[in-house]
From TrEMBL:
InterPro entries, A to Z: PTS_IID_sorb
Superkingdom classification of source: Bacteria
Keywords attached to this entry: Membrane, Transmembrane, Transmembrane helix
NCBIfam families: EII-GUT (TIGR00821)
Name of this protein: PTS glucitol/sorbitol transporter subunit IIC
Transmembrane segments: 25-47, 68-90, 142-160
Pfam families in UniProt: EII-GUT
Keyword Membrane: yes
Keyword Transmembrane helix: yes
Length: 187
């Protein structure tokens, strides 16, 4: 009985520690994420949804805009997973590459912009805690992670272009490289 009681006590202690951590987050990171979301929505409201859509269509025509700028702007403005919706403006051929670049960016920007992927913030906070114990600045690490991420996300998108070309060639599938800018047909 002693072991069962000890296990139960340890089990409850785990949840008590989790509750304390959650309370710390509610008083520290949650307000920051909330304010960043408010800023993002305010920017979209000021710029206008149609202008944001026009920007996304224009960004799809250039490889640097497609895999550097569009993933950054859409992740910042829309967060994860909504950032993936900007692929609707891309030609079918480039959608896999955009997805590869965007999926990586939602992770590499978390230290500087926690509102992009708040569900994985605990990963960044764990890394940051180790860096803080070493007496180092976490923001410098976050910016380095962001910059390296931008380069690697671009390379990931670009390499996926080659992968898509290979799959299309070997399977006989032909994907359009022209963006469908028309409205969805009503039925």
């Amino acid at each position: 009985m002693k072991y069962v009681a000890g296990f139960a006590k340890g089990f409850m202690h785990l949840f008590q520690l989790g509750g304390k951590q959650f309370a710390d987050w509610v008083s520290s990171i949650v307000p920051v994420v909330l304010m960043l979301l408010v800023l993002m929505n305010a920017i979209v409201a000021l710029v206008g949804e149609e202008r944001m859509n026009h920007f996304a269509r224009a960004a799809s025509s250039n490889i640097f805009m497609r895999y550097l700028v569009l993933p950054f702007v859409s992740a910042f403005m829309l967060g994860n997973p909504m950032a993936f919706t900007m692929a609707r403006f891309l030609p079918e051929y480039y959608k896999p590459s955009y997805y590869a670049s965007q999926a990586q960016f939602c992770h590499t920007s978390n230290g500087v912009f926690p509102h992009i992927n708040p569900a994985e913030l605990f990963i960044w906070m764990g890394i940051a805690q180790g860096v803080q114990k070493l007496g180092l600045d976490t923001m410098e690490l976050a910016i380095r992670y962001l910059l390296v991420g931008l380069v690697m996300n671009f390379i990931g998108g670009w390499v996926t272009d080659y992968t898509t070309a290979y799959v299309c060639r070997t399977s006989g599938i032909q994907l359009s490289k022209e963006a469908d800018t028309g409205k969805v047909a009503e039925s």
